[in-house]
Amino acid sequence: MRVPMSALAAAAAMTVSGQALAWSLEEAAAPYEGTTIKAIFLDRPGYAAAAELIPEFEERTGIDVTWETLPYENSRERQVLNFVGGGDIDVVLVDVVWIGEFAANGWVTPMSEFYEDEDLADPDLNLDDFFPVLLESFGTWDEVVYGLPFDNYSGLLYYNECMLEEAGFDGPPQTWTELLEDYGPALTDADSDRYAFALQSRRGETQSADSFMRVLWPFGGSLLDENFRSNLTSEESLRGLRFRQELMDYMPPGIVDYDHAEAVDALAQGQVAMITEWSAFYPTLADPDQSRITDCLGVTTEPEGPAGLKPALGGFSLAISSQSSPAQQAAAWLFIQWITSQDKARDYVEAGGVSGRMSVYEDEQLLEEYPYIEPMVQSWQADTAVPDFRPRFPEWPELSEIIALYGTRMMLGELGVEEGARELGEEVEQVLEEAGYYSGDKPLLK
What we know:
446 residues; alpha+beta; two-stranded parallel sheet; 20 helices; 42% helix
C-alpha cells in the first residue's frame, strides 16, 4: 500500500508558500487556547516519554492535554465503546491491526483535512520522513492517511551476554534453528530455574500476535494466502508451529501465562538468557532500577528462519476522533503533528520513546547511546519488514480471539499442531466467509 502522492505533494507544496514560511505552532494554536483534548495511552515507555514532553506543548499552545492510561488488552474495547456510545476521546490510539476497523466504521478522520489546511499544517511536517512501512501499516487504510506513527515497534532479540559467554557462546544465535538446537540445551537448567528463552504467550493478543504469528513468517508460513484462505496447513506454517512446540522444552514452565512484563522481567532478573521483544522495552531492560543485567544486556535483530529475517512488526499511530468537536479535532491535530514531528523526535527518543522518523536515526551519537536502534532500523527496511505481519482488516479482533484460543491449546498439548492448525483455519475461514470475503462483497486488499 502506498500513501497517495497527492497527500505528500500537498504537504510539500506548503513549504513554498509565504504564509507557510511564517507558520508557528503558537499562532496556529491561538484560536484553540483553553481547549482540552483527551488521549488514550498505554503503560509503556513511549507514553511516559510523551507525558514528559507534553508540558512544553501545553505551555506553547494553551491547549490542555489529558490522557487515560490503560493496559493494552483494554484499550481497543475502551475506544470502541467510546465511538459507539459517544464519549470523551479526541486523540485515538490505533494499533496496526485496528486501522481497518476504525477507518471502515468512520471513527477516525482523514488527516488530509488538517495537513491540507495551511493554518494548521506545519510546513516541516514532511510525511516522507516517516519509515514507509510504519506510515503505511499503522496510519494508512485504503490509500488514505488516518494517523501518524507514534509508538513504533520492531521485534528484537534481547540477550544476556554473560549467560551466553558462560555457556561457551561468543554471540547470540543467528537463526531460530541455532537457538533451538544449540543454545536451548546449553542454557537450560530447570533444577536451577534457568532457561534459554521466553516467548510471551499469554492468551489474548499476546498469544495471537507475539507468539503465534511470530513463528509463521520466518519459516515461510502465514495465516492466510493471497485469496484470504487459511494457509496454516501449509508445510511452511506447520514447520513454524512445530518449532514453537519444540522450543517450549527450553522455556520456563507456565510460559502460556507470560505477557510482555513477565518475559521482560525474566530476562532482567537473570531467569532466562534470551527473549524476542519489542524495541520499546529497551529502556526498561537498560534501567538498573528495573534490571539486574544492564552490564550484560545485548540486543540484535530477531533470528533468521528458513525464509530469512522476518521480524515481528507492531506499533501504533495517533489519529483524531471523528466525533470530537471541530476545535478539539484541530487541537488534537496540532498535538499529534507536534509529538510526532522531526523537531521533537530526538527529545522523544531520549525520553524513552521510539520515533518513526528516519532522520533522527542518522544521529551517530544516538546510535552509540542506544544500541537497539541499528537492529530496529534494519528490521524496518523494505526487504525485511512484513507490513501485514498481522492482517490489518476490520475482522482481525475476532480472529485474534480464535487464534489465541487455539494457539494456547496447541502449546499446552491439548491439540496437536496439525489438528489445531486445521481446526483454527476452518474457524478463520468461517469468519471471513460471513464477512463477505469469498463472495466478492469485500475487496481482498487494502
